[in-house]
């Protein structure tokens, strides 16, 4: 400051010099601010440029990935037809000797196989997007995997249908609705080519009077136990001069502990047959065809076959009497189903989406079902079993098992539906009255009783044994 004091003049020029100095300092300050803003702006622009370049590179990579996928799809679809045909023959077998598969058929099959491939990739990516504990939860809940497997199973069945149908099925009848294809008799469209996980081929090594196959879920071990200890205890009927066997039909489960339990149960009782379709309501008709196919292949020496659910009690003593009367009348050699017959047009088709009984108009166009038997329990003669199974190969699938088997296919197979004697009393299908009925003499007319509470069955069975010992039946 001492140097400045000597430099700044005195007198009238002093004020002018000070003013000029402040003006210069202010300008320096302003220029400093401008320079600082320019530097920041350059940095921001450079950063934005980097982000834009990065985004551009990502978009370029995405476009490249899309193009790669497009090229892969194009390569898939443009693959040599003959090479793909050879692959298909290796996978599914050439069901018709020297069959020429036209290009249109192969394109449809390849399209389905492509969807199968994407299903597997989607499932794989979904699993990798989750941590290990989440994946374990998926396996434990069983739901996600089962639903995915059902989609894959449906597409595989469609592949088999197209493959087995070849030119006749695809080219000539593409315009037909699904249900109308039942009119086509020269192509197998429902092959039921599932594999046995558990089988008991020697159950029918002796000539049988009656084989009972029971629809049961993998987890229903207690229901199977109750049946073995009550009406399914076949040693009770040897004194009546008849040989009866009981077998339980199951689909597969992805719950390992349940499957292990089923395997051990099978080793103890040797009365379980299991195929590798998913055990779900949507596959109930597969379970029905499974039973018919098993009887046709492994139990052709039984006179009668009874299909029953695992929540139904059977008065075997009354049933045996009914069957002996059928033998006497010659009906055992005819194609007959006996059951609780629903008349044509009585039962409406459920169109409410999301429900287990929903059937689309494309699958079944009529608003009411034709005549069929209640699925809780129905009896088939051996000729009826063979006829229905054989015809099922040519009838499009519908999951409403009782109508599909005892209605649609049975009609096409020329099988006659009949009621049991006094059929209005032979069935108890309202389980809220189950225990009340079996505590009174009113149960003497019943052959079948439905009970959602399996705990009631042993008590009701004791009543049946008592009345049998009293000579009522």
From TrEMBL:
Record field: transmembrane: 15-35
Keyword entries, A-Z: Glycoprotein, Glycosyltransferase, Golgi apparatus, Membrane, Signal-anchor, Transferase, Transmembrane, Transmembrane helix
Source species, domain of life: Eukaryota
UniProt membrane topology term: Single-pass type II membrane protein
Gene3D superfamilies: 3.90.550.50
Ranges of compositional bias, category Basic and acidic residues: 62-72
One example GO MF annotation: hexosyltransferase activity
Root EC class: transferase
Protein name: Hexosyltransferase
Species per Swiss-Prot/TrEMBL record: Owenia fusiformis (Polychaete worm)
Lineage of producing organism: Eukaryota, Metazoa, Spiralia, Lophotrochozoa, Annelida
């Amino acid at each position: 400051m001492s140097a400045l004091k000597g430099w700044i003049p005195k007198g009238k020029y002093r004020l002018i010099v000070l003013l000029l100095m402040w003006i210069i300092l202010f300008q320096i300050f302003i220029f400093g601010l401008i320079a600082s803003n320019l530097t920041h702006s350059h940095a921001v622009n450079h950063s934005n440029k980097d982000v834009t370049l990065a985004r551009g590179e990502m978009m370029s990579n995405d476009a490249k990935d899309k193009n790669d996928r497009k090229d892969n799809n194009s390569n898939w679809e443009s693959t040599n037809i003959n090479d793909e045909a050879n692959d298909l023959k290796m996978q599914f077998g050439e069901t018709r000797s020297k069959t020429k598969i036209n290009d249109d058929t192969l394109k449809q099959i390849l399209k389905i196989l492509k969807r199968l491939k994407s299903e597997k990739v989607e499932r794989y990516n979904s699993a990798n997007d989750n941590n290990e504990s989440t994946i374990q939860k998926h396996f434990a809940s069983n739901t996600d995997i089962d639903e995915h497997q059902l989609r894959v199973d449906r597409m595989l069945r469609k592949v088999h249908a197209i493959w087995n149908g070849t030119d006749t099925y695809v080219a000539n009848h593409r315009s037909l609705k699904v249900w109308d294809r039942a009119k086509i008799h020269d192509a197998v469209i429902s092959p039921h080519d599932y594999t046995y996980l558990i089988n008991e081929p020697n159950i029918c090594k002796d000539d049988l009077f009656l084989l009972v196959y029971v629809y049961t879920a993998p987890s229903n071990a207690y229901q199977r136990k109750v049946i073995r200890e009550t009406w399914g205890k076949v040693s009770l009927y040897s004194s009546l001069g008849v040989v009866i066997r009981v077998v339980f039909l199951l689909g597969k489960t992805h719950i390992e502990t349940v499957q292990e339990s089923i395997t051990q149960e099978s080793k103890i009782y040797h009365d379980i047959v299991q195929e590798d379709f998913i055990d779900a309501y949507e596959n109930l008709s597969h379970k029905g065809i499974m039973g018919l196919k098993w009887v046709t292949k492994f139990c052709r020496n039984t006179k009668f076959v009874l299909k029953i659910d695992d929540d139904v009690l059977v008065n075997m003593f009354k049933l045996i009497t009914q069957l002996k009367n059928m033998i006497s009348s010659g009906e055992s050699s005819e194609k007959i189903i006996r059951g609780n017959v629903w008349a044509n047009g009585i039962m409406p088709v459920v169109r409410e989406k999301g429900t287990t009984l929903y059937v689309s108009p494309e699958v079944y166009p009529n608003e009411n079902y034709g005549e069929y038997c209640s699925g809780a329990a129905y009896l088939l003669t051996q000729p009826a079993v063979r006829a229905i199974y054989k015809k099922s190969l040519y009838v499009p699938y519908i999951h409403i098992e009782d109508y599909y088997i005892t209605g649609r296919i049975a009609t096409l197979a020329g099988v006659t539906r009949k009621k049991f004697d006094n059929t209005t009393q032979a069935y108890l299908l309202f389980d809220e009255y189950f225990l009340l009925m079996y505590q009174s003499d009113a149960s003497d007319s019943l052959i079948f009783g439905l009970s959602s509470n399996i705990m009631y069955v042993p008590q009701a069975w004791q009543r049946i044994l008592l009345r049998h010992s009293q000579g009522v039946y």
